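Reviewer 2 asked us to include a model.

Predict the structure of this chain.
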Amino acid sequence: MTVGLILFCLFAAAAIIQILYYLIYFKRVAAYVPPLNIQSQTHPVSVIVCSRDEDEALARNLPGVLVQEYPTTHEVIVVNDNSVDDTRYILEELQKKFKQLHVIGLEQEAKLIAGKKFPLSIGIKECKHEIVLLTDADCTPATEHWIARMQAAFTPGIEVVLGYGAYYKAPGVLNKLIRWETFHTALQYFGFALAGTPYMGVGRNLSYRKELFFRNKGFSAINNLPGGDDDLFVNKVAHKGNTAVVIDPAAFTLSSPKKTWADWLRQKTRHYSTGKYYKTSHKFLLGLYAGTLVLFYPLFVASLLFFDWRLALLPFVVRLIVQGVILKKAMKQLGEDDLWRWFPLFDIWMLVYYIMFAPSLWKKPQNRW
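Predicted model (structure tokens):
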């Protein structure tokens, strides 16, 4: 067997694996149809927001949480974690207008508990209702129906509900790359969850039952890590029978993306530092997808150079067509369809992206929010 044939066989194998991921997992997002009863029920809900020195973000985004149109009992809890800015005064003003707003002020640092897991645990402990709906201080609901649409997914047996935390659209390459990466991540965690293998959620838009949190002893297993209050907790407690997804523009949250490359790099490095703690099966599935994507383009070029270029084009074109069709529909589902025209370039960017953030998987995470 010649070197060229070996390279082509490896390329074809990578292309087939990539196509299978699109057909088995990602197609489910593209073809998602909400259950018929998704809006037929209401539960009491506790919305929890943790904040630390985010006075401007709270002033800008919290009103969107407070003006939700939801007929059933609900409360909004803000855990003010040792803020030294004007957070306290902003919350006091908002409490005068919105009676459902409750503030928990923390004035001492939690020893040996990194990140926001301690304030979040306090918020969950103090909340009144069984359905806990989480978002961040820098997020606002896309519509006034966010609470209603997210809680409606709690049909019998459901304990975890995964939502989509989108970013505002703005000019510039960085904004598009951030939104593409956010979409691409959601494509994976929604697709895997719909296939019966939930492995993560994002704290910008995540809901679960209070009883589930305490039954699993909260964040006790990951208190030493600065991150993981969303993805690692979901990775531990979610399974095929207890997890639902909500893909509905009315149930999205919106955040302002990072404005500089340096800020974005720090953010993503922190996020990826938790991946090594996922279940082994999840690490394998995610690693196989990322690995074959990274190998796909180098092997394609090698096949063009050292094998028959006409045969090398076949797997490339088939993957491109399958990818394009599924991404177009999935992007429309998640409101990111303006990115579709650029998807071949974004796909190449993912090769660089995975290589760039691979070291985060074994580096020790920084001990901060």
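The first strand starts at residue 45 and ends at 51. The CA atoms of residues 169 and 243 lie 29 Å apart. We have added this to the supplementary material.
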